[in-house]
Amino acid sequence: MTHHGLFVGLVTLDLIYLADFPPSNNQKIVASDYSVTAGGPATNAAVAFRHLGNEAVVLGVVGSHPVTQLIKGDLAFYRVAIADLNPSTTQAPPVSSIIVTQTTGERAVVSINAVQTQATIEAIPEEILSNVNVVLIDGHQMAVGKAISQMAKLRNIPVIIDGGSWKPGFDEILPFVDYAICSANFYPPECHTTEEVFAYLHGIGIPHIAITQGEKPLQYLTGDKIEVLEVPNIQPIDTLGAGDIFHGAFCHYILHESFPAALSLSAKIASFSCQFFGTRHWMSGSN
């Protein structure tokens, strides 16, 4: 059975370079490899979800600037559909420049998020949730994300948030969330520890919560108890987008598996992706 996912949030153009090290002030370096792809948490998650055998739609602002042809071409290649919240805008899309350190897989990122490309709820296409089985919201289109999460809740469609970092407005979306999958950098107001984050989200009524910590074991809440799940031990080549890929895989596996099993399988996919340069090469299994 083919499932349909809606991925709400940021659409960027990612310029990714592989180098021995990031440049220091006034220094020029030569990259050993590069990649140009569509990016953004929701976008990368949609690509991963589609790769695992599903249908995926990205709901975000793309527009008609010449640069967007690179975004559209990449997503068309990976058969991810776009529902454009502002197709007539000629404003350049957000662009991220990323330097990946070849020896460690660590990355340095310069980017512009969706602050300048916020859409209104009036831009949401009619019947956008028709046939949708799962929704992921990355918090970069907050008004649209809130509206979609409310509509999904009424239709009993599971809502997942990518909690990469806390963003103003998340508090209005969280009451409609079924699965909060957060990074170790996600700190709601007045929260300073992992335990406080779990307590905050659990207090809102979110039934399933997990916090990823890179190569360290992830933690998740089941009932009233925090459990620990080991992640695969690998030698990373590139950690860029691993969290996004985790979320896309989770959207796939949670439709078939228990919460702990979906987390474990998603961690395996994300870890595997870290052994390849860029956010796409893992899907062909060649670096």
Q: Would you report the number of β strands?
A: 13
Kindly provide the name of the CATH class. Alpha Beta
So, CATH architecture?
A: 3-Layer(aba) Sandwich
Q: Work out the radius of gyration.
A: 18 Å
Instruction: Give me the CATH fold name.
Output: UDP-N-acetylmuramoyl-L-alanine:D-glutamate ligase
- Physical arrangement of strands within the biggest beta sheet: 5-4-1-8-9-10-11-12-13
N-to-C CA distance: 31 Å
Gross morphology: globular
Output the CATH homologous superfamily: Ribokinase
- Continuous helix count: 7
- Low-confidence stretches are none
SSE string, helices as H and strands as E: EEEHEHEEEEHEHEHEEEHH
Structural class: alpha/beta
The number of distinct structural domains comes to 1
Mean pLDDT: 94
Give the helix proportion (percent range): 25-40%
Report the major sheet. 9 strands, mixed
Proportion of residues in β-strands: 25-35%
Describe, in plain words, how this protein is organized in 3D.
With 287 residues, the protein is α/β, with parallel strands linked by helices. The chain has one domain (4-24, 31-282): 3-Layer(aba) Sandwich (UDP-N-acetylmuramoyl-L-alanine:D-glutamate ligase). Helix content is 26%, strand content 25%. It is built from seven helices and 13 strands. Strands 5-4-1-8-9-10-11-12-13 form a nine-stranded mixed sheet, with helices on both faces. Strand 11 and strand 12 form a beta hairpin. Helix 1 crosses helix 6 (242-253) and helix 6 (242-253) runs antiparallel to helix 7 (259-273). The model has no long low-confidence stretch (mean pLDDT 94).
